[in-house]
């Protein structure tokens, strides 16, 4: 029972364009959603989070949107840079340890 | 503070052997987590501690797995009688639980290869 789903294993975007990474969840009790970025041979690093009582959170080039009725969130990266190439994980919590999706590999092409 | 440290970074062992991984969390963090990640998957929760108390264990944590955090600081994860299916990246993370999002800081991981 996969509670957090990232249905796109990979995404390629040109440098300077917008990257949109999507995530769906099934547990309506999740109260926080987080995005992590992972480079090869490193652990995941925290990027941005959003509370379930909000629908948008922005931090520089990164914006996370939450649609509770659709149980869907997305991460927008504008403008995309080659250094953004990594695997991005969506994660969620409900007074429990974080539950992660399978990740989406983003490739930003110069 | 050097972040979360894990040792060893890579361990190759033969099936049936025991292995132990160590994690040193960020010093002021009271929570410590172990996750496992296999190819093409996201991190999967194994267990976590608040100070020295082990508060939750996943059903993924079979009886061959044991984790300790004896003094509420570093933690060890031991796998007895390793199997090829145990080959994975074992990730440790720590956090300071307070209000808001529980942001975990991960170490670089310990990669286990069981031959």
Task: Give an overview in words.
The complex is a heterodimer of chains A (110) and B (115). By secondary structure, chain A is mainly β. Chain A is built from no helices and 11 strands. In chain A, the strands form 2 sheets. In chain A, strands 2, 4, 5, 9, 10 and 11 form a 6-stranded mixed sheet that branches. In chain A, strands 1-3-8-7-6 form a 5-stranded antiparallel sheet, with no helix packed on it. In chain B, strand 5 and strand 6 form a beta hairpin. The radius of gyration of chain B is 13 Å and the shape is globular. The mean pLDDT of chain B is 93. The interface between A and B is medium-sized, with 25 and 23 residues.
Rg of chain B, alpha carbons: 13 Å
Approximate shape of chain A: globular
Oligomer: heterodimer
Could you list the spans of chain A in which at least 5 consecutive residues all have pLDDT below 50? Answer: none
Strand content of chain B: over 45%
The total strand number of chain B stands at: 11
| SS-based class of chain B | mainly beta
How far do the termini of chain A sit from each other?
38 Å
Largest sheet of chain A: 6 strands, mixed
> Which chains share the greatest interface?
A-B, 25 and 23 residues
Given as residue ranges, the uncertain stretches of chain B (5+ residues, pLDDT < 50) are: none
């Amino acid at each position: 029972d996969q509670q957090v789903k990232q249905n796109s294993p990979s995404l390629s975007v040109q440098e300077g364009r917008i990257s949109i990474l999507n995530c769906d969840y099934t547990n309506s009790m999740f109260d926080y959603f987080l995005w992590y970025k992972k480079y090869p041979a490193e652990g995941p690093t925290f990027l941005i989070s959003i509370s379930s009582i909000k629908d948008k959170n922005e931090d520089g080039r990164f914006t996370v949107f939450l649609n509770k009725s659709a149980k869907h969130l997305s991460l927008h990266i504008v403008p995309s840079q080659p250094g953004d190439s990594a695997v991005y994980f969506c994660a969620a919590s409900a007074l429990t340890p974080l539950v992660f999706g399978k990740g989406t590999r983003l490739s930003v092409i110069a | 503070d050097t972040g979360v440290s894990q040792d060893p970074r890579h361990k190759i062992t033969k099936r049936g052997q025991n292995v132990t991984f160590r994690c040193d969390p960020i010093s002021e963090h009271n929570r410590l987590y172990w996750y496992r990640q296999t190819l093409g998957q996201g991190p999967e929760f194994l267990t976590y501690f608040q100070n020295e108390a082990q508060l939750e264990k996943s059903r993924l944590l079979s009886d061959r797995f044991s984790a300790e955090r004896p003094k509420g600081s570093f933690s060890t994860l031991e796998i007895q009688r390793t199997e090829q299916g145990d080959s994975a990246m074992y990730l440790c993370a720590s956090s300071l639980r307070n209000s808001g999002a529980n942001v975990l800081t991960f170490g670089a991981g310990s990669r286990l290869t069981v031959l």
